Amino acid sequence: MIPASLSTISRLQILEIYGNNFAGQVPYSLGNLQDLSWLNIGNNNLGSNSAHDLDFLPPLANCSKLGVLHFALNNLGGVLPNAVANLSTQLCRLYISINSISGNIPEGIGNLISLSLLDMQKNLLTGTVPASLGKMQDMQAMSLSENGLSGHLPSSIGNLTKLNQLFLDQNQLEGSIPASIGNCQNLQLLYIAQNKLSGAIPEQVISLSSITQLLNLSWNSLTGSLPGEVDKLQNINTLDLSENNLSGEIPTTIGDCSSLEYLYLQGYSFQGNLPSSLASLKGVLHLDLSRNHFSGEIPKELSKLPSSVLYVNISYNNLVGEVPVEGVFKNASAILVTGNCLLCGGVYELSLPACPVKHMKRGKHHLLKLTIILVPVALFLLLFLCFLAIFWLRKKKKSSASHPTIEQLSKVSYGRLHRATDGFSPNNLVGSGSFGSVYKGYLTQEERQVAVKVLNLQKKGASKSFIAECKALRNIRYWNLVKILTCCSNTDYIGNDFKALVLDFHGKWKRRAVASF
């Protein structure tokens, strides 16, 4: 136990018994030490979690020079008395954390206008955060975390312009985050996680460029989007906005938070693509974007994240496509991509399915562009050549059909020609030439009038003339004048050789035939 006899040292100024095994009750008589400026009885076993454990506090109001009061880390219980507001106005540090102190924070605590540090964390305090705290103009660090405080945060917190650390986490605080916190231009750490705060994140708070250590608003019910002014946090080390109801896209300006080492944005309704600007976070160690609604492919730029990255979690989103295999993505132990059913590729250890189509390398982009240009041109030329070929074949076929060769013609017998010309009657003689005579005839089977040119084989050269004329008629270009129908190479009734050509006969035939033969 702390001996009560200490109170007899009337000029005692500093009593430092931190970190011992003192137990029992704190002597009330310590209030008799009027010159006492420093009282540190923390980290002992004082108190018994009973209602009278704090009865030593009211007498300490007599210590008008008291500047530091530390009784944290004990077993002190009971209700925090209103008498705490009567302590010395010179009190600059008050530590009562990690006890079992209950009740409300007295409104009169604002009378302690010289306080620069107030530590009440890990107690059983309830009620609201007193607005009178805004009177403490010299306050630099305040911790009310891990209590049962409720209600709204007072806007008077914005009056604490010297504040650099504010811990309000793990309470039951409600309502919105006061925009007036943006007035705390020296704030380096703001920790108000695990409450019931709602509404949007004030731009005045997210743009506090003074925050260098931590901004933690996680595990609340905050809504709206992440303001683009987040880029003002260029010197921040840790940003934790996880487990809220934020939505929209992550602003690309987040890449300007160049000092960021820990970024936690998991458990939201964020959507859109992963911003490639995240690759600008050259000092990042932990990056958690899991359990959102991000879509699209993983930006290739993210493979440029520093090799010092220990943890990248993009699991349980709607990401698709190929997982990079370079940079940080080489280290499967640092990457979490589970829960994205349409991802493929990546390093073997990720156990993802192979991608069906391998992405084109940048070096082949030029070839791809060239192919896109040349293929249509080649196809056009090919179609044009095919068109010409078809046109030429059709023309040739038409010519062949219109002008049959000798081989295509059916030969006729001597007997038929004999009957067609009435036995080569002189009455049917049309004309004579150097190698034969031309007779008019009628082929009854074809019901067609014809001209029959009979060669005089007794004439020297007639046979050669017949052969030559057949060859000539095969390639002749003016058949529209004399059109060949068939030929005859046979013997007559008495066994003599007989050769004749059968030609078309029309009204002007005689004049043309005589001119030809």
TrEMBL record:
Keyword check for Oxidoreductase: no
Compartment(s) where it occurs, according to its Swiss-Prot or TrEMBL record: Membrane
Keyword entries, A-Z: ATP-binding, Kinase, Leucine-rich repeat, Membrane, Nucleotide-binding, Receptor, Repeat, Transferase, Transmembrane, Transmembrane helix
Name of the protein this chain belongs to: Leucine-rich receptor-like kinase family protein
GO CC terms of this entry: membrane
UniProt membrane topology term: Single-pass membrane protein
Keyword Transmembrane helix: yes
A Pfam family annotated for this UniProt entry: PK_Tyr_Ser-Thr
Single GO term (MF): ATP binding
InterPro entries found in the cross-reference section: Kinase-like_dom_sf, Leu-rich_rpt, LRR_dom_sf, Plant_receptor-like_S/T_kinase, Prot_kinase_dom, Protein_kinase_ATP_BS, Ser-Thr/Tyr_kinase_cat_dom
UniProt superkingdom: Eukaryota
Domain Protein kinase: 424-517
Residues annotated for ATP binding in this entry: 453
Segments crossing the lipid bilayer: 370-393
Lineage per the UniProt record: Eukaryota, Viridiplantae, Streptophyta, Embryophyta, Tracheophyta
